[in-house]
Write a structure and sequence with these properties.
Strand content: 5-15%
Distance between the termini: 25 Å
Number of helices: 11
Mean pLDDT: 80
Strand order of the largest sheet: 2-4-5-7-6
Structural class: alpha+beta
Number of strands: 7
Radius of gyration: 41 Å
Length: 391
């Protein structure tokens, strides 16, 4: 289970330190001094130009008089001070620009400091600053990236946990029959059998346990194979009605031994669709086998086939004891068994439904289970046309 994301921090403004405020003041003072020196230098150069060019001087003075009369004031326009308003406005703009730029740099330093704090392992922390413009987008992007990183870490942990559980379950399921095999063969090896019949009994038990191990290994191999992104899907066109009828015929004898009736219900005479028939047969074998093994009290197994415009809907259901509601969502987890006490008596790897789900997913479909006092149903939706999931 993934951890819940941390609640968002309350947004706040960046508060500058006393050192940063001092740096801003120093920046303003230095900028003003440089601008004053620059203004004096420009005034000296302009004065030399005006003294050496009477025509230019006359044109500038004529323009000055026009501005002075328009503003009804000659305070700034008297003598050679007519350029002061321009210098004053430009200087103010330059000082403001420098201070804003420097302030932005300080904000960026605060953001970098917060980012280093998160990078040190505090993944539940988010940058809480309330900003505007591009810096706001930067903060939102960083917080979003941290959220994605945390989710990826949690997924990786879940995968590692899943791998550990897989190894534990496989080890347990192999160790149990292997212990029996070694035990009975050990009795034979030590000559502790008293008759040929007893030896045959021990060898038969060892053989049965070996077959259980073989089934587990084969299911585990199949489960791993269908989860690989590069697993080959041999898509062919086939008749789903004919396939299901053949499956029902194959299981008719086994069903009759358990006093079960297996039947097909459909309005379709033929239904041509695309799929990997070998893998789909594995899906239906798993579902029918589960119904035969675990459908306690069932009298019939029904395979329904319906068709919509884009997909085929196949339902494999039995009228046996219902599956508890709390178990339905876990049925497709590997090694999960809805009835642990029953599963000790009935052989099974617990991988059949997980394999079935992966095969259906590879075909671009989906599978789910429903159970009520009347029916326990496994419902498969498969696209009619080639819709293999690409990785």
């Amino acid at each position: 289970m993934q951890n819940k994301p941390a609640p968002p921090e309350k947004r706040k403004r960046i508060i500058l330190t006393s050192k940063e405020i001092s740096e801003l003041i120093a920046e303003a003072i230095i900028t003003i001094i440089i601008l004053l020196l620059l203004n004096v230098a420009i005034m000296v150069v302009l004065s030399q130009m005006l003294n050496n060019s009477p025509d230019l001087s006359e044109a500038i003075y004529r323009s000055k008089n026009i501005f002075a009369s328009s503003l009804n004031s000659d305070f700034f326009w008297s003598g050679r001070n007519f350029l002061f308003p321009f210098f004053f406005i430009i200087d103010i703009l330059i000082v403001c620009w420098r201070l804003i730029r420097r302030y932005r740099q300080m904000q960026l330093q605060h953001i970098i400091h917060e980012l280093h704090y998160i990078a040190s392992g505090n993944y539940d922390y988010r940058i809480p600053f309330e900003l505007r413009g591009d810096l706001s987008k930067v903060v939102d992007s960083i917080n979003g990236l941290v959220d994605s990183t945390v989710a990826a870490i949690e997924d990786e942990r879940a995968i590692e946990k899943s791998k550990d559980e897989l190894i534990t379950n496989v080890s347990h399921d192999i160790r149990t029959p292997l212990t029996s095999i070694i035990g009975y063969l050990g009795l034979i090896e030590d000559g502790q059998t008293h008759s040929e019949a007893e030896m045959k009994k021990y060898t038969h038990i060892a053989y049965t346990k070996a077959k259980q191990m073989k089934a587990l290994v084969e299911d585990l191999f199949e489960y791993t194979k269908v989860r690989q992104p590069s697993v080959p899907i041999n898509m062919v066109s086939f008749d789903m009605v004919q396939l299901l009828e053949q499956l029902a015929a194959d299981y008719e004898l086994e069903a009759s031994k358990k006093n079960l009736q297996i039947m097909i219900e459909t309005q379709e005479t033929t239904l041509t669709m695309d799929g990997d028939t070998e893998k789909l047969v594995r899906v239906f074998n798993n579902l029918i086998t589960n119904a035969l093994k675990y459908g306690e009290g069932a009298t019939k197994i029904v395979i329904e086939l319906e068709k919509s415009q884009t997909e085929a809907i196949i339902t494999v259901k039995n009228d046996g004891r219902p599956i508890p509601r709390e178990s339905l969502d876990q049925l497709f987890d590997r090694f999960y068994r809805a009835d642990q006490s029953r599963s000790q008596e009935i052989s099974g790897t617990g991988l059949g439904l997980a394999i079935s789900q992966n095969i259906v997913n590879l075909h671009g479909g989906y599978i789910y289970a429903q159970s009520n006092p009347k029916w326990t149903s496994f419902i498969i939706h498969l696209p009619l046309k080639n819709n293999v999931v690409s990785h």
